[in-house]
Amino acid sequence: MQVTRATFNDVMVPNYNPAEMVPVRGEGSRVWDQEGKEYIDFAGGIAVNVLGHCHPELVKVLQEQGAKLWHLSNVFTNEPAMRLAKKLCDATFADKVYFANSGAEANEAALKLARRYAIDHHSEAKDQIISFKQGFHGRTFFTVTVGGQPAYSDGFGPKPGAVEHCEFNNLEMLAEMMSERTCAVMMEPLQGEGGIIVPDPAFVKGVRELCDKHNALLIFDEVQSGVGRTGHLYAYMGVNVVPDILTTAKSLGGGFPIGAMLTTNDIANSLKPGTHGSTYGGNPLACAVAERALDVVNQPEVLEGVLKKEALYREILGKINDKYHVFSEVRGQGMLLGCALNEEYAGRARDFMVAANSEGLMCLVAGMNVIRFAPSLVIPDEDIVEGLARFERAVAAVVAG
Ligand SMILES: *Cc1c(COP(=O)(O)O)cnc(C)c1O
């Protein structure tokens, strides 16, 4: 059957507006479309393809597990799920893991757990969840309500209650809002969708202190910042602030859908049998792929490589900006970088993304003012150099009008 981009409009619910080209094949950080045109991939499936496309180790484990056992449900456990959980616990603060299929589901579990923990240990009245403006936590109704962009949560009728939003990086405001009624604070240790915003380390430490003071749980949403993206296995390790609950997804499966919630023994005890669940969560195929992705990413050479590649991006982007004066700053960490547009180009991030696509480069935006790069952590330096040469041509085209 012949399908083209026009087919999308015929048969897909119109909640997305994908690019005109239709990718059909990928290898490393290169992708080819239906016409055979080649692209360099700085989008990484939105911070998912942590080892690029069709990494040989991931293809191998997928084929091996695919010939062995695909699915069981949670009526039975399985070896890949237990191995992955063990490795996640060994590598982080966590003692216990809950598996889901996406970031939103991992966050949904985290929020339900925080509420249940407060009821178990304090009272029903301790129900306030505080999160941050511009934050993003997924699209289920609870998680999108906790997210800090009302445009995403409005228009669906009554929202889950007791959710309040604070300004990011504003510790005084948070201190004002918190009390013994606060159940949990949920934050991204590096805001992704909201515009690649790295919080002040003192702010993150302050949030931890306020949570301790008011017996509130600190939930780090590391769905975008996790699994090596910042050059640390998880971003919390870079700021030295340990959360009570951490969620991880996107890069965790390297392109295979999986999400996970990590926590301590004490907190995990509030999710007793029957309190929460998922048919696919802990699926052996997903866990086998994620286990291998984690093995590859969690090596000093790979994590150090992320910082070297970040330096290369920043050096070349600086030169592009010296020539064209389009960015006010390049921000972010590791392989999660944002080029914030200056006043003159305000609101035009999408124009740059579309121009880049024409030049053979896939990239992302984060809001209307930031061009976002979230490539593979092992993208070859040649692909960074060639991709940024294409990006420079796109910048020149936008500047020329
Ligand atoms: C992408 C993202 C989510 C949602 O993940 P899905 O897999 O799309 O449900 C949640 N939190 C953050 C920080 C994200 O970047």
TrEMBL record:
Main location group: cytoplasm
Q: List the GO biological process terms.
A: L-arginine biosynthetic process
Q: Which Gene3D superfamilies match?
A: Aspartate Aminotransferase, domain 1 (3.90.1150.10), Type I PLP-dependent aspartate aminotransferase-like (Major domain) (3.40.640.10)
Q: In which residues is N(2)-acetyl-L-ornithine bound? A: 139, 278
> InterPro entries, alphabetically?
Ac/SucOrn_transaminase_bac (IPR017652), AcOrn/SuccOrn_fam (IPR004636), Aminotrans_3 (IPR005814), Aminotrans_3_PPA_site (IPR049704), Class-III_PLP-dep_AT (IPR050103), PyrdxlP-dep_Trfase (IPR015424), PyrdxlP-dep_Trfase_major (IPR015421), PyrdxlP-dep_Trfase_small (IPR015422)
Q: Where in the cell is it found?
A: Cytoplasm
Q: What is its EC number?
A: 2.6.1.11
Q: Which residues carry this modification: N6-(pyridoxal phosphate)lysine?
A: 250
The cofactors it requires, by name, are: pyridoxal 5'-phosphate
**Name of the protein:** Acetylornithine aminotransferase
What organism does the UniProt record list as the source? Brumicola blandensis
Name the gene.
argD
